[in-house]
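In this section we walk through a basic example: taking a raw amino acid sequence and producing a predicted 3D structure, encoded as discrete structure tokens. The instruction is simple. Fold the sequence below.
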Amino acid sequence: MKVDEIIANRGKARTFRAAKAILDKDIYEFPSSANTQPGDQLPCSSHDASSGFISDKTELSDKVTYRDALKYFLYGAMIYMALHEWGRAIHFLEIVLTAPSRNNTSQMQIEAYKKWVLANLLAHGEVDCNLDLVLQVLDAYRRFSIVKLGSTYAALLLPQVSQRTSPTPDDYVETAEYITLMINKGQLNATLDSRSRSSEPQSWVLRFATSSSTSPPILSEQQRYEEMVRQAATSSALAEHIRATDRKFMLSKEYSEWMKRLKNDADSSGNGGDAIMLPGQHPFDDEDIMGDG
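The resulting token sequence is shown next.
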């Protein structure tokens, strides 16, 4: 009987201890799909690693898939949890969580994450302080997976996007809500064409912009409003700064002297009255600032 079969039948046979004897032996390599050693070395020859002779080619092992590996560590973690060996259980679950994935997060990884949280609670009375980071990483991976689709496809049906990126591939409504939120936040340069909101989500289409590098991001009405408010606040602050600068200048010695000279020039020319400074005029515009005075 295979190890994973022993583990899978733990509920019936309650063979926790029997499985534990195998689980306690650390795995450093999984059987390869072919003999990777050069030449036709015999299994009894000297090998640097067990994967050199334990393979489906030598018939010393069946073919081990990516899913088989995840199942081994997930079920193994469940047995360790049943035996209250929390450290070992958490280690196995983290192997599942950090396993590389070609597309979206697998259902087994989601299940492993739930158990990882519970195992930490039971072992330490609290969840690891990196929990928020883990959640953010998982969410970021999903976001980037959706954005990355735009480099390959011009448009995709919502079910196709969901199957490729969602942890719950059959929940099209949740995928639509997630994509809409990304668009509203400016994280995705695309539109979700639902034809009419009365239509079924299966018929909705996600249309990507031609090029995210050349096309401006699509802003929601709220984002446009916030941008206008921000620009208005900037303009207001700049105007106030100019007024403050003008006030400081009008109290300066240079300004007082210039006003006196301008008044004297007006009196000598017979125009009289107060001097007027035109908009944009600077009190020293008519002086040669490079002169000796």
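Looking at the output, two observations stand out. The mean pLDDT is 74. The longest helix spans residues 221-250. In the next section we compare this with other chains.
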